[in-house]
Structures are given as C-alpha cells and as structure tokens.
Amino acid sequence: RVFLSLSVLSLQFNSDSAARHSLYVKEHKVRAEKSSHRPLDRTLFVLNIPPYCSEDVVKELFSQFGNVESVELRDHPGSTQESGPKLSKFFRPAGKQGFNVGYVVFKKSSSLTAVKSHPHDVPLVVCTEQRPVRTGVQKWIQQYTQSFIHPDKLQQTVDSFMENYDKHKEEEAERQKKEAEQQKEEEEGWVKVTRGNKGTKARPHSEAANQRTLQKEMRKKKRKELMNFYTWQHRNTQKEHIAELRKKFEEDKQRIALLRAQRKFRPY
Amino acid sequence: MKKKQAATEEPAEVNLDTSEENEAPVKAKRIKPDAGEEEEVVYHPVKLSRNDLYRPPTAEELNQLKEAESLFHCSLLKMQMGELLKEVALSERRKQQIDSFIQTVTKLFQTVPDSPEVEVSDLSWLSGTVKVPFLLLPKITKGKFHMAPPASIDLIGSYPLGTCTKPHVMVDLAVTIPAVSHLSIFFQTQYPRKRALYLAGLAQYLTSSSDIGTMRYSCLHGNRLRPVLLLTPPDKNSSSFTVRVHACPPPGFFKPSRFHPQRNNIRTEWYTGLQTSHSESSEPPTPHYNSSVLGDLLPRAHLQFLSAISSQCSAFADGVALLKVWLRQRELNQGTGCFNGFLASMLMAYLLTTHRISNTMTAYQLLRNSLNFLASTDLTVNGISLARDADSTAPTLAEFHSAFQVVFVDPSGHLNMCADMTACTYMQLQHEASVSMQFWDNPTVDGFHSLLMTPKPMIRTSDHVFQLCELVKLQSSCKKLNLLSELMDHSGNYIHTALPFILSLLQQGLDQRIQLLTHSLSPDPEWSVESEAPKYKAQPPLSFGLLFRPELAASVLERGPPADSPKAAEFRQLWGLRSELRRFQDGAITEAVLWDGESMCQKRLVPKQIITHLLQLHADIPESCVRYVGAMVDDVIKSETKDTGEEKSLAVVQSYDDLSRKLWRLEGLPLSITAVQGAHPALRYTQVFPPKPLKMDYSFFDKEKTCRSLVPKEGKPCPAYITPITVICHMEGSGKWPNDRLAIRHIRAAFHIQLGELLRKHHKYTCRPCPTHLDVWKDGLVFRIQVAYHREPQVLRESVNPEGLLVVRDNEEAQALEMATIHKPLLTSTLHGLQQQHPCFGAVCRLAKRWLGAQLFTPLLRFNHVFPFVEGVFPTDFSADYTEIKNGFMASRESLPVMFIATPKDKKLSMWTRRAPNVQMLQRVMMVAAESLKVLEQQLMDGNQIQDVKVVMRPPLEVYDAVIHLNPKQVPLLSQAVDPPSVTFSRGVMTGSAAQSGGSLPVIDYNPVSLYLAELREAFGDLALFFCDPYGGTVIAVLWKPKAFSPVPFKTSQVSARSVKVTGDEANTVPNVEAILEDFQIMGKGLVKSVEARTEKWSF
Question: Which UniProt keyword terms apply here (chain A) (predicted)?
Fold first, then answer.
C-alpha cells in the first residue's frame, strides 16, 4: 500500500500481539540537506516509531533489508542542528519517550527498494526471543541502575570539560586581541587614539543599557514639562477625570448587567 | 471562548464562567441549565464616543459620580447593592396578589357567624376535623366562650412597613378578639386557651371557603402559648407568600405594669397541680411569660412607631432589607431567640432616634453603621431602650438585666424585645458583625460578596460542631439542674429552659479554649390544622458550634486554683471526680484536670472529652446523645501508625535543620555557602503523608557495589517509596563562576561531588552526587541537595544577537530554574511561618491535597502553593478545606491564566498557575468541590445517615473512556489509599527505630506508577488525558481528547499512534486505538494488571 509516496509497514511488539502499528517510510528527500550523515540516496525516513523502540532496536529491525550504517531518532522531523561542544552522557538532556521519527542510513541504496517492496501484511516484530526488549518494570529497574554515576568518573568528566572550556576561552581572547591589533595596523599608519579599555563603555553593548539611556532621555523631557500651569491645562485635567469616572461607571454597569444575567445577585 | 467550548464536548462541562466572582457552592446546579440564555450577554470593552465622555456634566451626575467615588470603593459596589435590593424586594405583581388575598381574608373574617355561648371545656361546637392549637390541660377550667367576628383586622409587621423581603414572604395580620368573647383576665387559665379556641374557630370557618389554600398552625417564637394561623392562597404559586394570623386582645385590655419582669403571673400551684406552701409573695417571677403576653398587645404600637421613623428616613426600608439579607446568610434570622427582621428595624430605628445615623444616609451607610453598632455594643451588659419618656411603672434597665440575658427595650418601656435571645446568640451576632467590619475595610477581599452573598451556615464557620440528639433527655437535665420555676416561666418548654444553663456550663468548662460558642436556633414548629401540635422533642437536634483559640484548644491540662484557695471547691464542683491535686514543676500544688491525648489528632478531640464529661456530670445527658462532628476526615491522612502526621513533619523539619547547620559549618569548599533553603512540601508541613524515617532490609534488594546503593529486585514487590527532600544550597557569587550555561552546570556537578565528599568525611553520611543534585542518606531520610548560583537564570536569558548586541530574552528554562531555586524556597519558608501562626494550616492543606489526589486531579493542579492566600479566614478543621478551595478560584480574567494566584513576590503573572489548570479542568474541580461539599455537610449534620466521610474521596469512574488497573504489588504507596487493601506486601522495610546514618543508600524516588504515567503522557499526551490518585491509587483513568479523534488530513508531523485511511484522493488519519490499548499493556509490563476499554468512543 502506497500513498503520498509513502509506503506502509506494519509493526507488532511480539509474535502474540493482536494489534499493529503502521510505520510510514519513504526515502529521505530534502531540497537543501547540508549535513553529510544523511546521504540522500541511502537514507530512509521512517514515521511513527513506537516509544519502546530504541535506536538499537530500529537498527536490528531494518537490518533484514540490508546493512544499516546508522540510525537517528528524533521527536519531530527536521534537520539536525548541532551546536556547542560534545557533552558527556551525564550532561546530555534526557530524550523524549514518545513516538519518534527516524532516519535510517543503509550501506547500500538498494536496501531502500527492499524496504519499500516489503509486503504490508508481514509485520516487523520488535521483541523476539533472540533479542528481547525490556519494557515496564524491567526497564525502569534497568534505568534506575544505570542512573548511578561513580563520583570519580563524574569528576573526570567535569575536569576535562572545564579544561576544554578554559582553553577555548583563552583562544577566544587571543583571537580578539589579534583582531584589534590587525585593525590598528590596517589604517595606514594612522593610530586611533582611544581612552584605552574604558572606551568600550562609551557605547553600550546590551539591549538593556540601550533602553536605560532612552528612558533617561524621556524622563528629562518630562521633567521640563509643566502640568496644570495654565487654566486650560487645569480644565483639561478635570475634564479627563470626569471622563475617566464616566468610563468606569459604564464599565461597571456592563459588568453588573452580565452578573445579573447570570443571576449572581440572588443571595440565597 | 464559547465556541471553543462547544467544540470540545467534554462530558463534565458546565458553562464557562468569565466573571471574576467565585461561585457560591449551593448555586452550582443553578447555573447549569441556563447556558443558552447567557449566550446573549457577552462582556466586551465599553466604547464611548468622545461626545459621551466629554460632554459637560449636569449637577446631578456630578453628585452621583462623587458619591460613588467617595462612599464605595468604586461604583461597582453601589450597583451591586442596588441589584441585590432589586432581587429581594417584592415585585408590584406580588404586592397586588398579597393585597387582594388580604382583602378576601378580611372579608371572610368579617362574616364569621356568631355562635351560641358554650362552656370553655365544651368543644362540641367545633365540629369537623379542626383541632385546637393548644394543650387542653389541666381540665379544670371554667368559663364561657362564643365565636364572633373580630373587632378589627389590621396588617402589622414588615409588610405594611415596606421592609418585607423575599424569600419566605410572611404577611402578618392581627385579628382583635372582640370583647364579647368573654376574655377574662385570669390569664394563666383563660386567656391563652380562649385565644386558641378563637383561632380554631376562625380556622374552622375558613375550611369551608375555596379562597384559602392550605391552612397550618404555628406558634410564635416556639412558644406554645402563642399559636398563630398560617394561610396561603389557593392558586398554584401558593408558596410565594404566607399570611400569618395573630389573635390579639383588644387594646387597653390589661395594664402593662402587671407584666413587670419581676412579677409572677403563673401560680406554681396551678402549674404543678399540687398544693404547695408558696404564699403569694414568694412565687418566683415569670419574666418570659410576661414578655410573651406583653408582646401580644403591642404590635400595633410598634408598627406606628416604625412607620413614623421610616417616613423620616428615605433609605430606611432598603437598609433594613440589607441587614435582613446579612442576618439570613448567617442563619440568625429564624427560630426562637433569633435576631429577626423586626429587631433589625427596631435597631435601625434606635440608631436613628439616637442620631447615630442621620436621615439622609444611604442604605449602604445604614447597614455599615448598624453592623458597627452591633460590633461595638454589648447588649448583654449595657442594654438599650427605645422608650423616651417611660411612665413610672416601667421597669428599669437594671431590672431587665436581672431577668434577661440580652436587653433591648421597646418604645413603651415595658417589653424586652430580646427576651428569648441567649447571650451566646448575641455574642455570635457581635462576632459576625465585627468580622464583617474587618472584611469591609480590607480592600483585598470582595466585601459585598463575602458579606451579603455567601451563606455562612454553622457547619462551615465553626471548628467543631456537636449535636444533642435525643432532646427528651433535656427534661431530666431540667430536673437535675433544678429548674422548676424556669420551666414554668417557659410554660413547659424544657429545651428553652435548659439551653441557657447548658450554654453557661459549657462556656465555663471550655473557658479559654474557645473564642465563641454558638448554637442553632430551634425553628418554629408548623403543623396542619387537623393534627395535634408536635411535641417539643420532635424538633431537629440542637447543634452547637465551637470556634477555638488555636493555641489553647488542644491543651490536655486544665490547671485550676491552688488547693487551699477558696476557688478550689468551685473548681472541684465543676469537674467532679476528674479534678485531682497535682504538683507542678514550679512547685505549686493545684487542682487540675488531665485529659487523655498523645498525638496531635487525639489532642484535637480534648474539647469533646470536656463536653461529654460536663454534660454527663451536670446535665444528666449521656454520651450517646452527643454526636460530635470534628476531626472526622482526618482518617484519610492517617498513616499506619494512626496519627495524623504532625509529629512526623516536625521530625523531618528537625532533621533538616540539623543538616542545614552542618552544611553551614563545612570547611574546605572553594566558595562559601550563602543560604540553605528547604523546597519540599514536607518542610512546609503540607506533604500529605510526611516522609518517615526508615530502616532498610538489605536482603530484599540487589546491591550496586561501586556506589554503595541498593537496587530494586525484579520479581519482588516494589520497594517502599522514599521521597527525596529537596534542599537548595546557594553558593556565594564570585568572578570564578563561568559565564556560560554549560560550564555552570559542570561546576555545579563539581560542587555536588565536593559537598558529598565533605559530608562523608566529617559526618559519615552516605552520599551520591549527580550532575543535578546530591542525595544524602541521613536519619532514615533522604535529602536531595541542589547547588544554586544566583546568576544562572540571568545567564540563561542572555544571548548575543548577530549585531553583537547583548539581548536578554525570557525563556522557559530560566523561569523553571528561577522557580525551583528562588521562588519555591521562599514560599516554603513563608508557609512554614504561616503554619506557626495557624497550626491547622498544614492539616487543611494536606486534606485538600488528598482530596484533589483522590478525585484524580493532581496532574492538573499543583495545589502545593495555593494556600498562603486563602489561609485561615475560617480556621476550621474539617470542612474549611472545601471553602478554601473555592476561595482559591477567585479571578478568571480573559488575558490572564484561568486560575490567578498572587504571591507577595509575584503580583502580576501568577507564575504557579500559568500552565497548569485550564478552564475545563477548573470548572470540573469547582463542580466536584461543590458536590463534595454538599455531601459532606449533609453527612456531618444529619444524624441518621451512616457517617462515611470518605465518600467524597471516591471518584466516579464512569465518565472515563478506559481504565488501566494496576498490580497492587508494584504500587509502592498502596497503604496510603483512601480504602487501604487488607493485603500488604513486604517492601524491604524493617520495623523498629530508624537506621543510623551510614550504610548503603536505599532505593530513592523509584515509583513505577509515576514513571509509567510520565511515559504514557509523553507518548499519548496529545490523544488522551491520564488521571491517577498519586497516593496509592491502583487505577489509571484515561479520557480520550475528542479533538484528537476526529480524522485529520495526513501530515508528517502528526502521525503518532495513528493509522491512515485512504478514501479517494484524501488520506486521513485517526488514532489506532487497538494498538494504543496494547501499548498501554506493553509499556507497563509488570505493573499493569489489565486494560479495560469502557466506551466505543473511537468510532466518532
């Protein structure tokens, strides 16, 4: 069965399960795919992977169609954005346990056609005797056991990260310094005279500071204004006051009407 | 909003409530049906044209605006008052109905035929089924009687005065007995009897008329000597008003001075039927009897007086109506000894005549001033009198005070209008008035609503309530208290005779423990004209309400005077055998009574012990007659050890204090600790089941050697749940902290390791550091220490945009962190302080949370933080929780979260409720709360029902689409369930005292049920809602979201757990329910017993 260029595979948990989930697969096709680890001709895009299928399980499931190079599970389709330094597993945020989409990269592109031609009524089986999948209480106990981290190992991770971080920082500082020097030299013999390091304060580099200066200006302007000085000004203020009272009165009247409609005034 | 609601056809929907008022509980059912009608009125912003706003004001308009601005907080209050008055005032149509009915009745009365003269004892002329509303005993009377048309028929009371209010419109009609009816002045014998006969005669005449609906007898103020006849119109709206016919003696029929409160008008000899040696002069005075007779004579004079007053003051009628509404909400306006509408008008008249209020004041000011007067004046000590120039025969105020508890003398100077009122009722009135004044002056409370709209029945305002069930027993207490002459004065009503004495006895016994003792007012009996008057004992049981002083109420020791002081005898007399001589630590030897009670929950019942003991000892009322309502719901928060956990919370707090001290003293950290704060419900006394120190049975677990931790074993029941108690540990700010979010997290982890190391070295605690926290095993409890850096939220918010400008953007992550490390600890310490002020706060919170949990609401409402603002307005013990829940749902405005809770630190955003409850959920909670309140109150007040307060804790499962039954073996909190099962499982806990610190770490925070729920919600959160009682629930209820079940076109982002149906060109998806139900099984393998699908809902 094929629709919208997707083919449907069915999947069941183990061989006695009665109900089946449907996996929707097609080849990965994106106009501008930048990352190299999803080669367009060899990547299979899989929708609706149940929560109990981890990356390893998916790899096992699809290896019947050919050798699988890598599997990537995500909670919604989209390109990868990798940022920041590589984190150790202790510090990585926990993944979501819901239904996932997957990108399965095969070694050969011929595997894709094998998948697509797989008959709909022969289900993939997640949990077999050869490779049992833990769920429920078993899984939670396993999770609990794996949550232990030996302090020494943790300390090591922290130390190495901080070392990297410090190095990175230093490099950054070095780079900036060099840039500044370069700029100086570029200006053909002219040397710009600044107030040294303090000079950076002259122009604020944050949004908050910008706003502060703006507000200061406003306040200055306001202070100069005279309120209630001329008679017409005074009269206007009074007028405004009455208008305000009237408006409030109208609002209250409406609110009362609403409450009355809801019979909120029956005391008993 | 309306549209959205129509689309989601939640079964448990009520209409949306867009206003900011909270719903009074009793009205929950009323708002349901008229949803359609409401559709028309929608609140939209007012648009006034420039012309409207700026046109020149008229003088009248200016005045009006000024008044609204200065008198009321805003014009809203003024309008609310106006609307309320409109609701209670009689409509013109109703008035016409009343007038025409009165006319027909008057005409009928005037045509009463004269009957031949008969002996009084001869009742043969009274043919038919009409009975005489009077006990015709003793039989010896002689005299003549015959019927004749009344001498005059007048309207009296509130109707002609214009102060009559809905509901229960009562129109009083005075019928003057003609002089020819041989009314004689032998009062005790003839007058009441003949009057009763006259009423019976009228009733008999009216039975033949078709213009009269039902006829019933009643009696004024429960006094059997003052029968009245109640008439209703015959048509279908007969319940709309009642005409009360009083038979009155002709004016000037007797001299008022004869009924001086110190004179006797009933001969003991006649009353008892025995010859006694009393001489004329030594007969006991009969003040109550006297005032009841005087009351018959004066109504017309009172009406004249009041109408004169009301014609001077334009707002008089409105003011009285408001005061009547106020009284009615407090259940003070009906029954014997009440503060009825007549007294309200008289009070208003008194204030006007003494110029406490001026004639030009508005109704609102009248109400406010009269409440102020009530709050500040004690009529039990300083009575007031309306008599301007009383004649010399009138008694003095002192004479009134010696005869009555509360004194308010009428314009004639002879009658005390508060004769039947007990001092306790007046105290209650005074208390309510002063509380109301406080409410009014408090700008944060909606005064109008809490004063005039919210009913305050006794069960909701008192801490404890008890009832006297078998009122016959009061007869014997009259005997025991030796009250024969008083009994005579009350003409045999033993309940009213004994009541003041019982009240003073209790007041004496409870003394410092209570702020206020209140009692229910017995309602006026009503019976049909064809039956005999009901017995005194037939009235509903008497209820007494106690309002405690929290600091003294639960003390187990009653310390009396020193043994040699003269007061000792009095003390011994009061307490009987319970009084013992005791030697105290300060060396004094005094009389004392020691009550039983070890834990807090037993101590709370000390007042019960006192009450039953005193009643048994002095009033001969056995314990079986006392139905004590108080601390009944405590059962559900009792743990296995049968206490309510206050002590355990305290133990946790002490252990935490110790840990925090030790943390402060740690040396060798690179940065110092600036603050240690608790952030766990147990540390603010609101954990439903406070954690208790445990000792682990190592053989029950697997062991993880490297980390010295225990691990749950497969195949065994789930180990006992150990909740980690969160402690936030703030570190000093320093330039050494990095300015990068990841680096901060790593540094934090390093701190956790180091803290753990130091704690292990110096104090031998077993610790386990993680990147996010450090678990410490101490005194059988687990503390979870989280290091916090005060700038971290700021760092999370900062980012550099492409132009190199530093931008600060608020984000979820930063908010969550701020909440956890700053707001939560702050609130915890605030609530901790609150608990010190209001000791029942913790218990109330825990009950409320238990209830929410049991009704399967917990995932949606995080109630931990709701309570500081609804705190002890009513510091009640057992039902306050429901009242407070409702107070919690105050404001729901369009732009803000549905449930808005302001904290001292957070006034605009309501950060605790931004995400949690949505409109539907809140509605459902309110509805269920209202229903539960109803059930609970009924059960608490009705003696006949079997008391099972747990009913309100059992949720109905019918409304849910699927139910997942869990295996009790794997539910670690099973013993906390509302109905704990009889089977228990070994959970690896050893009995005996808690483990010393050290040893392996137990299994921490491992609860399969919550893990399962989290997985379910992550996987199926957009298809269904999952509900589970977190306190030992063995059932997970599933509700499909109707929206998710309508077919949607295929989208790659929306295919989770859905199957595709291709019809023609379209490919739609619907949830694959069979597979989902099976997934429930698979994901909860070992935990799930069975999955039960209840509806076929997926076939939409």
Answer: Coiled coil, RNA-binding
Residue B672 maps to a domain: no
Q: Is B768's Cβ below 8 Å from some Cβ in A?
A: yes
Rounded (5°) CA angle B778-B784-B789: 130
Q: Are residues B452 and B467 in the same domain?
A: no
Inspect the interface and report whether the beta carbons of A136 and B1056 lie closer than 8 Å.
Answer: no
CB A51 within 8 A of CB B1083: yes
Are A90 and B37 inside 8 Å of each other by CB? no
- Does B477 lie in the same domain as B433? no
Structure token digits, residue B469: 């069930």
Give the confidence band of A170 by pLDDT, cuts at 50, 70, 90.
very high
* Mean pLDDT of all residues belonging to chain B: 75
- On the question of pLDDT at A84 being above 70, the answer is no
Q: Is the dihedral of CA B894, B895, B897, B901 positive or negative?
A: negative
Q: Is B41 in Cβ contact with A257 (below 8 Å)? A: yes
CB contact under 8 Å between B1015 and A150, yes or no, is no
What is the number of other CB atoms lying within 10 angstroms of the CB of residue B274? 8
Q: Which of residues 10-39 of B touch A (CB under 8 A)?
A: 17-19, 21, 26-27, 30-31, 34, 37-38
Judgement on whether residues B909 and B966 belong to the same structural domain of the protein: no
Which ipTM value was assigned to this complex?
0.79
State the nearest Cα–Cα gap between A111 and chain B, in angstroms: 22
| B913 and B979 part of one domain | no
Q: Are residues B497 and B396 in the same domain?
A: no
Question: In chain B, how many domains are there?
Answer: 5
Contact B1067 A98 (CB under 8 A): no
B464, B608 Cβ separation under 8 angstroms = yes
For tokens 């109550």, the residue is B288
Comparing CB atoms, the residue among A148, A158, A258 nearest residue B19 is A258
Token pair for residue B784?
A: 């979870």
Asked if residue B1061 belongs to a domain, the reply is yes
Looking at B615, B631, B647, the residue that finishes a domain is B631
Average pLDDT over residues B1009-1019: 88
Question: Average pLDDT, stretch B205-210?
Answer: 80
Task: Give the chain B residue nearest A51 (alpha carbons).
Answer: B1019
What H or E segment, with its residue span, contains residue B1060? strand B1058-1063
Instruction: Find the CATH number of the domain harbouring B1051.
Output: 3.30.70.3030
Residue B874 has pLDDT above 50, yes or no: no
Q: pLDDT band at B890, cuts 50/70/90? A: very low
Q: What is the C-alpha separation between B488 and B793, in angstroms, rounded?
A: 79
Q: What is the pLDDT of residues A61-71, one digit of tens each?
A: 888 888 888 88
Query: For chain B, what percent of residues have pLDDT higher than 90?
Result: 2
Q: CB-hemisphere CA count at 13 Å for B200?
A: 27
Same domain, B450 and B481: no
Contact A158 B768 (CB under 8 A): no
pLDDT exceeds 50 at position B1063:
yes
Q: Which of residues 196-255 of A touch B (CB under 8 A)?
A: 205-208, 210, 239, 242-243, 245-255
B978: number of CA atoms within 13 Å, CB side?
Answer: 24
Residue B287 falls within a domain, yes or no?
yes
Contact criterion met (CB < 8 Å) for A255 and B19: yes
Range of the domain at B864: 857-954
As beta bridge partners, residue B553 has: none
**Within a domain: residue B245?**
yes
pLDDT digits (tens, 9 = 90+) for A85-106: 567 777 777 767 788 888 888 8
Distance from CA of B712 to the nearest CA of A (A): 6
Give one DSSP letter per residue of B829-889, joined into a string.
HHHHHHHHHSTTHHHHHHHHHHHHHHTT-TTT--GGGTGGGTGGGS--SSSHHHHHHHHHT
B820 touches chain A (CB under 8 A): no
Contact assignment for A137 to B1087 by CB distance below 8 Å: yes
